[in-house]
Every structure is written in structure tokens, then in C-alpha cells.
Amino acid sequence: MHKILIVGGGSAGWMTAALFGKLFQGLYDVELVESEAIGIVGVGEATIPAIKKYNELVQLDEVEFMQRTQATFKLGVQFVDWWKKGHSYIHGFGVIGQDWEWLRCHHYWLRANQKGRARDFADYSINTAAALQNKFMHARSDMGDSPIGHIAYAYHFDASLYGRYLRGLAEQHGVRRTEGKIIDVGMHENGDIASVTLEDGRKIEADFFIDCSGFRGLLIEQKLETGYEEWTHWLPCDRAIAVPCERTGPLVPLTRATAREAGWQWRIGLQHRTGNGHVYSSRYIDDDAAEAVLLANLDGEQAGNPNRIRFTPGKRRKMWNRNCVAIGLAAGFLEPIESTSLHLVQSAAIRLVRLFPDGHTDEANRDEFNRQSDFEWERVRDFIILHYWANQRDDSDLWRHCRTMELPATLQRKIDLWRSNGRIFREDEELFSEESWIQVFLGQGVVPRSHDPLVGSRAIRRSSNSWAISLRRSIVAFR
Length: 479
Known about the structure:
- Strand 8 (182-187) and strand 9 (193-198) form a beta hairpin.
- A 7-stranded mixed β-sheet has the order 5-4-14-15-16-13-17. It has a 6-stranded mixed β-sheet with strand order 7-2-1-11-20-19. Strands 8-9-10 form a 3-stranded antiparallel β-sheet, with no helix packed on it.
- Helix 1 packs parallel to helix 8.
- The chain has 13 helices and 21 strands.
- The chain has helices spanning 10-23, 51-57, 62-69, 105-114, 126-131, 159-172, 287-295, 341-354, 363-389, 397-404, 409-421, 434-443, 458-478, and strands at 3-7, 29-34, 72-74, 76-80, 88-92, 154-156, 176-179, 182-187, 193-198, 203-205, 208-211, 228-230, 239-245, 254-260, 263-269, 274-280, 307-310, 314-316, 320-321, 324-326, 332-333.
- The relative contact order is 0.16.
- The protein is α+β, with helices and mostly antiparallel strands.
- It is 34% helix and 20% strand.
- The radius of gyration is 23 Å and the shape is globular.
């Protein structure tokens, strides 16, 4: 194993290149080939807190990174009109309230709610409270159990500037960029990929290939014919239109997702502009009407031409096939309702580093990579489906269809367990925590019939009362 070739740039290509360049120095020759004649989708501007782990791995300085990418801080996602029109809630990052012993705090809230004594569950989230006032601060490590000691955050940034920034970093670590359009892919007799040929006749050979060519899947699909698992029966949206507008008003540390009759609209505030997009189902609205809905709901003056995108929700049947791994849109697509697009790039690149072959493609490593990838994508898919299914809207066919559709067995099991006693368990290393599921369940009106009976335990109550007294004292001392 001497040479790794990354096919395609954009966020996926350069995130992978920067990581490989940093970690594989002296081990492998890493080259990236891309063509400026081929555009990139470039609409992923919102992230989740895990992006900080990637930034640390490639040693990005937060201040410089935010300056170079026009970034802003993000504390969560605000969902407007999803449960029903006129209602909104926030999925805030990080912890909510205080867990006592082995019981999560929402069980105490459920008991109080049944007795009519509960405030809004969101009142127990420091992220939600801060975001509603357009406030932000870094966590204070010296604050112990105080909510100020547990502030989780992510970023909004310009994806094209992020890719450009990572390109410079990758090249500093020895990654070579080659400009050119690929017109042919050469194969070994055993079925592995051997080389790519550029439009000008140059042939680039490699031992291992990373397909970051976007929806085309130039290597993973067009050449290796890996196959695609489609999820449109659960996620009916198959189109998106993105357009920037001028920024107006103060910066808000939230991604806003507003439900529309045939889909939903995102709003992402950056330093220099606001990113907007309309994700919709072509079954319920045509492209021109969808664009009109988007343009009629911009906060500021339109600052660019609309970019229309077609996609099929789902994933490749194998993301690692032979000596090729698909990352980014080449691997699949899940709409960015919870800002997971760049995370799926990051997690795939890190997973590949952890399972990278040492000279030949080991079947066990390949199978484990695909198993972990399938698990992650399916659990993210389930979380997205929950947003659509848990609605009480009756104003359009899309929402009526989503409310009555048959769900994946993995999601149905989570819903049944939650509805019974409010129990949520994070499986294996699935992306979204219990706090995330709890906020979306409650935010969209799925309230359990009961709570964990241990809430009534005298020993648990004594423990929780001691914690409450301790917290009040620390708050008084802090003031």
C-alpha cells in the first residue's frame, strides 16, 4: 500500500484529505483529483458538536477557523410548525437538567407534568435558554455540576470556504491536488480499481481509492455497480433549492427549520450572509412553486441565484467495496434537518482511518466498516423520520401521509418503549443521545403514558433533594 487517491473535492474530499494528510504523513502518498468545471453542491453550512472533534484532530484554531469560514456559533435547532402550525420547539445540544442516580431528569418532569405542576421541559436546557436570548459563551470547566459547565455547541459556516481552508491545510501536510476531469476508470483483473484517466490523457494509478465524487458515485456506483438502498418510502422529500440572502438583524445561535406544506425550509445565519433552502417532495409540489415559496420567505434581499438539487434519500449497499470507499454524497444522502451531512463525512473518514488496510484489503476490516456505517446511517434515518411522523398537521397531503406511514422496526421499537414509560436507551455508538430523542418526542407532542416507578423511591428523592440544595448554594456563591 503506497498510494491513496481521493476522487473529488468539496467538503467531503478536503475533509478526508486534511485528515489523511495529518495522520498518514510518511506512510502513504495522498493525492486528490478534482475539476473546477464540475460544480459542488455546497449547501451544508450547519453542524453538530461532533465537528469540534474533527477540528481538533486536524488541529484547527477555532478563532482562525471562524474568521476564515465566516462562521457563527450554534446551540441547537429550532423547529417551527412541525408538530402543528403556530407551535415551535428547540432541540438544544448538551445535557438537560440533572440526572439523579440512574434516573434521567425527564422522569421527574413527567411525574410533575401528570400532576399539572411542570414547566416547559425546555426550561431545563441552558442551550435553549441562551439561544432564545441570542446569547453564547464557552463552557466553564470550573463550574462543576452547574449548567454553565456543560455548554455544548457547534457552528454554522460557509461550506465552500471551509473546503478551501481545509485544502490549504491538507497541502501543508503533503497532499497533492491534481486538476482534471476523469473520463475513464481502469480496473485490475481481480475487479479492483487500478487507475483513473483524465481528459488530457494523464493516467493516475493508486492502491486505494476514496470516492468523493458526489451524487454521481463515479467509482463506487458507475464503475463498481455497488447498488443503492432507497428510503423514499419513509423520507418522501427528493428535491432542494438553496439560495443566500443578505443578513438582517442580530446573529441567532440556532439553525431554524420551518415546516412548509410540501417540505421544510432552513435558515442559517453566517457573518456575511444568511443561508436558506427549501427541501420538498416533488410528489406534492413542482419546482417552480417550491422556489416561489422559498423566495417569498427570505429574511433579507436575495443575494444569489437559486441552486436546484435533486436527490434520492438512502445509501449505498456497501460504502466500502473492493479497494474503494465512498464518502459524502457518493455514499448516500439524508436531508440536513439535523445537520448531519458533514458529520457523516467526518465519521466515515475517521472510521476508515481506524480500519485502514495495511497492504491488502482485509475482508474483516471491510465488513466491519460497512456494518458500522449501516448502523449509523439507519439510526440517523430513524431520527429524521421521527420529525415527519410525529405531527398533528392536517393542511396538506405530505403531512397526512407521514403521520400514517409504516415505520422502520428500529424506530417503532423506540417509539413503543418511550410511549410506555418514557424510557430511551442509546444503542451502541449511535449518533443522537437520549437528550436529543427526548426533546424531539416532547417537542412534537409524543408524551409517555407514565414514568419510571423509581421516581417514587424515597432513597432517590433524598439524593435529588441533596443535589438541589448543593446546586442552589453554588449558584448563590457564583452570584
